[in-house]
Amino acid sequence: MADDFNESSPSGKPEKLTAAFAIRAATEQFGALIGRTPEAVSGIRALPDGGWSVLVDVLELERIPATTSVMSTYRVDVDATGELFGCERLRRYTRGTTDM
């Protein structure tokens, strides 16, 4: 994957945290924390302090058929350096559910 930022520090992290790097940092750290692989990112928002709030969708309970599997959306917050500093589950739903 190409660099998502122009200049980086010796640690490889960007001088200014980009949305793409924030998504990567949030999904990797959160996945390691809960022991599941995030399936998708459904939203991202910049925080006033330079960090980011990322909405991560995770498979909670796999069922057959797959449309009945239980999914969750978590808000995962990373600070301006890309470190996870907060997370919370916002909702649970079945994979086949649509929002109206």
Automatic annotation (TrEMBL):
Name this polypeptide is given: Gas vesicle protein
Organism (species): Lentzea roselyniae
